[in-house]
What we know:
- This protein is about 30% helix and about 15% strand.
- With about 250 residues, it is an alpha+beta fold.
- The strands form two sheets. It has a five-stranded mixed sheet with strand order 2-3-1-4-6.
- It is globular, with a radius of gyration of 18 Å.
Amino acid sequence: MPRSARILPEQSIFHIMARGNNRQEIFKDKEDFEAYIYLLKLYKEQHLFNLYHYCLMNNHLHLILETTPSTNLPKLMKQISLSYVHYFRRRYRYYGHFWQGRYKSLLIEKDIYLLTCGKYIEMNPVRAKMVTSPEEHPWSSYRTYIGQTQDRLVTLDPLFETLGKTEKERQENYQGILIEELDLNKRYLGTKTFIKAMEEKFGIANQRGKIGRPGKGKEKRPLLGVPFWGRQGRKKRLTNKGFLVYFRYTII
């Protein structure tokens, strides 16, 4: 089966996901996580991208980054991936395939969807029942957004500034955002207008094809709802076919 076309606009925001072959562990201990973080910092200087959110899990990883005219995304991911494989093989005498196919990339609209997707990937350790709260997992950008640490690797999400007038207010409001059900098996994430524009521009539909036969008796995943900021009043709740966004605090 031929590979699907890679969507690579010159300057855009991407959600990147890479997984270990057969879901095997790619990070076994603290030293492995630190090695990958080091590579991100190293190649960030070369490719000048902005890393807004990230989450490193035991067998896969998520990055949300914005490319610039100086960023060659395929080259960047190849350099990081190969460098980490060489490190892993030297340390563990590992042989065979390491990554499960190519990395996946999702094009994100630079609005509330960016912040939503960022918080969603930072909640991965909680959904996987590795921890009870996201700040307990040290290998993500979450601690940076709630003020527990200063990570020079992370560029603050542009939407973070809209969460409050003071740093403390923004951090508290960020903690108050809870996300449920976000379908990342797509090519674009954003408003209907954005998705339509991207489909017309690149000539590629939003739904990502899957290899193999379709499952029997399985329901389709819910469509992505459209999040919005609540105005003054009580806690706001938005529901749209299974996609929920909750805000603990009032956000203007």
